[in-house]
């Protein structure tokens, strides 16, 4: 036993976070701590780490057990390097090395004086040297480099000052320190936050080799499925332990919920029978003893409470958006640089109506830049972002939460901009995003980050546009909210372009994956699993493809050598250019056609309004030429519709090639 949690409770003022919590952390344990936001998961982890104390109960740990917790406490203004900060985790080895050098100098000094080295000094040096070697002292520099490289730091970045990095990268430095310290119990609170997909996969491989125990909080269901062998669920102040992996926990939770619902129904029936007896015979003296007996029995009954149903019972249906053109979004020959850093040089991408496209790639590859260009927020240096016929874009970014009015209640905020016919759906929409009962009366100003993210999404999706552009929509969402959102987007009739590091979310939502590497776009049909299989097949057969240089720093500066002949490369480039020109020409023609159609539709609508005027409708002399003009325009419009259908089909074929 590494840790024993004995009957601990924690309160915030009058609010009980949890009470009577009991469980053990055993050697080699893989414990997943799950539950809705605000249930007290992080507070429990802080108590295990010794950063906080319980109000009741205690955490018992043997003296030799080392506990490490992922924290975010680096001062971002410091000028020392990433490598120096990470090496602090091995300060005890540096102290041991200093002591070794001092002992060596003392023994050398005695040797120069022809004096015999005392056994005490020799024995101490030998014992210290053995401890230093077993602790990995001689490999510590290599360990620091290996951990930092795995977390995405290039050679140059490892020597850069901390002040030059964002909060997400500083969190990686803290994670590096934790991994280097090699504790007996590893406490991880959302370790995949701020990590790109390659770094998440690297971390998973490292944790699989970790011999100590792990207690982790995560909303990444794929991460939980791979690493958790037992699950602790915190909900409504109570802890439930499941001796199962994450998949088994989901199944058992469903079964337990159904059993509890049935038990409550049975208990309610028996209570109703007893209450009916008491009401019926309360006034009869001959039944007084029986009535009192049953009243006392009812008072002793421990009422069964049923928590919120498992997440799959929650449903969110998005209204069908306005139909748009066949190609809502087309990026042509995009160039974009930030100073000397060139992100894109001639990238092109076509997105068809109904596509749900996930952008993947390492941090810094340009995913958010591409989203901002598509949303019209960021200008390109060169190239064109073309929107199709009747396209309306909704963009969700992390700063979306800042647009909420702090003085509004949750219900008032979602009602802002809602139409009259939406009013009956407001509470249902909020309920789908886990705002129920009095939650809808909360002021926006007191909501947590996760609650604000849910409210911003609920507001945006109340009446969504036909193209959704979403940047990390699952950040700050718990597992239940993620499942609600992915179910809604999977059934959405519009088009979705999104970034997410949640692999389960990508698998559930995406119909296409676009990988961004070194400014190039590589398209894969299907979800994330299909992309992984195809990408591995590609990389194994074509080692010259752009790689994840952040994960292989020793190769970061090496030039990739092509195995294809020069002639083959030239032919392939020529074919690509020709196909690109054909596609761009068709898209331009389709765009012009859609403008003509929109103009004719407006003219027809105006003529229709004229004919609806009784003064004209009752005068054949005035109505006749208008009807003739209207018939001519309708015929022209029908012809344009036919051309539009043919050209749309051609564009679709070209996009599939």
Q: What can be said about this structure in brief?
A:
This protein is α/β, with parallel strands linked by helices and 657 residues long. Helices cover 46% and strands 17% of the residues.
Largest pleated sheet: 6 strands, mixed
CATH class division of the domain at 329-552: Alpha Beta
What's the CATH H-level superfamily name of the domain at 329-552?
P-loop containing nucleotide triphosphate hydrolases
CATH topology type of the domain at 329-552:
Rossmann fold
The helix count comes to 21
Task: Report the count of strand segments.
Answer: 18
Short descriptors:
about 650 residues; alpha/beta; Rossmann fold; Helix Hairpins; six-stranded mixed β-sheet; about 45% helix; flat
Describe the protein in words.
The chain has 657 residues and is an alpha/beta fold. Among the domains are: 251-313; 329-552, Rossmann fold, CATH 3.40.50.300; 581-656, Helix Hairpins, CATH 1.10.287. The chain contains 21 helices and 18 strands. The strands form 4 sheets. A 6-stranded mixed sheet has the order 5-6-7-3-8-9. Strands 14-15-16-12-17-18 form a 6-stranded mixed sheet, sandwiched between helices. A hairpin with a 2-residue loop joins β10 (329-338) and β11 (341-351). The chain is flat. The two termini are 59 Å apart. Residues 545-570 have low confidence and may be disordered.
